[in-house]
Amino acid sequence: MQYLSSNDFSEGFPKEITNLHGLMFLNLSRNHINVSILQDISMLHELQSLDLSSNNLYGLIPSSMSSLTFLSYLNLSNNFFSKIPFTGQMTTFNVSAFGGIPQLCGRPLVTKCQGDDLEQGKGQGQSKVEDENDDGFIDQWFYLSIGFGFAMGILGPFFCFSNQEALVCGIFQFGR
Fold it and tell me: Among residues 124, 104, 123, 125, which one has the least CA distance to residue 114?
């Protein structure tokens, strides 16, 4: 565990931290760090908690952070980032991980980034619509078959017992 909050690392992001491959918890909040997050942060494969809140970090959140599969807690609030890379592990975090950044855009935020609509039209958005339609088709047939099975289970014996004489006559005549 590395709790290095409120230490005034204003020079920049300590590059040596990315060499600590077994590091699981890292808190560098309130340090006035005035650079962008290093791409090498993805070298911390076992990182479970990352708090970089209340610094002066800026630029793009590195897309390499999406490969941090053990990361379960993330706090990047109160910085100056511009776009969230909504892929991989980054899709598991809610809005509170990115609070206090007015110019930030991208999912899970309501604010869309410029060009997001174009990217969705090129494939991602279309496949999502197709998946939704496929699920609806499968659901429709599933529920129809459940209803049919229920009706046959209730009504089938009812018709057999209500018309018992014809059933008995039909069985015995069949054997002749």
Answer: 104
For residues 30 and 56, is the Cβ–Cβ distance under 8 A? no
Check: CB of residue 58 under 8 Å from CB of residue 81: yes
Which comes out higher in pLDDT, residue 9 or 66?
66
Q: State the DSSP H helix or E strand holding residue 109, giving kind and residue range, or none if neither.
A: none
What's the CA dihedral at 82, 88, 41, 11 to 10 degrees? 20
Per the listing, tokens 């174009």 go with 118
Q: Kindly report the average pLDDT of the chain as a whole number.
A: 78
Reference 9, options 41, 42, 57, 48; nearest CA is: 57
In tens, the pLDDT along 96-149 reads 888 888 888 888 887 888 776 655 545 444 444 444 445 556 677 788 888 899
Q: What are the beta bridge partners of residue 80?
A: 58
- Beta strands in the chain, from DSSP E residues, in sequence order: 2-3, 25-27, 49-51, 58-59, 73-75, 80-81
Reply yes or no on whether the pLDDT at 94 is more than 50. yes
State if pTM tops 0.85: no
Q: Which residue has the tokens 């993805």?
A: 42
